[in-house]
Amino acid sequence: MDQSCLLLLYLLLSLQNCLSVPISRFYSFAGSSGDQTFTNVDDQATFINLSHDFIFYGYNFSTVFINNNGLLSFHQAVNGYTSDSFPLPQTLIAPFWADVDTRNGAGTVYYRETTASAIVSKVAQDVQLAFPGQPSFTAKSIVIVTWYQVGYYEENNDK
Ligand SMILES: *[C@@H]1O[C@H](CO)[C@@H](O)[C@H](O)[C@H]1NC(C)=O
Ligand SMILES: *[C@@H]1O[C@H](CO)[C@@H](O)[C@H](O)[C@H]1NC(C)=O
After folding, report:
1. How many domains does the structure of the chain reveal?
2. Is pLDDT of 89 > 70?
């Protein structure tokens, strides 16, 4: 990864009763974090106009689509609900590809872009720890997306 990369997409996910990382270790979300919310949808997407281009596989992207089904995509929204194997024709990052359904208030997808220095430097530190080959990695902007206690098709919220 190019260490001058302008943007790191930091992906957080949560599924009730299926936590791989304790909530206490998540980057801040909801509450006073400034998150926007995306809720009460099935197979839909919203997007963020990024403050800095995200360079990914040779393209400079200025928009990221946040797909309810646990995907971040770049050229367009992707409404697929079945996790297909890579490689795929779409340009995407798949932190949590599942048949998410937040209708009926079944969970919330929180998202924001931030340049808050405490978060930017914490993410840089985490990347440096996880990728020892990138000791001077820095970021300018972070996108945080949290799929929090989301339900699944069709309008279920019991997991
Ligand atoms: C993103 O930018 C486009 C044009 O540059 C604008 O029309 C649109 O309202 C913006 N959307 C958001 C969600 O910021
Ligand atoms: C993409 O961004 C990089 C870094 O800012 C720049 O050097 C490059 O020319 C850009 N490429 C395109 C196709 O805009």
Report:
1. 1
2. yes
Q: Which domain, by its residues, includes 49?
A: 7-148
Let me know: does 148 contact 15? Beta carbons within 8 Å: no
116 CB under 6 A from ligand 2?
no
The mean per-residue pLDDT over the stretch 83-94 comes to 93
What is the 3-class SS of 41-55, one letter each residue? CECCEEEEEEEEEEE
In tens, the pLDDT along 111-124 reads 999 999 999 999 99
Query: Does residue 53 line the site of ligand 2, with CB under 6 A?
Result: yes
- Global pTM? 0.85
Ligand 1 centroid distance, CA of 50 (Å): 10
Any domain includes 155: no
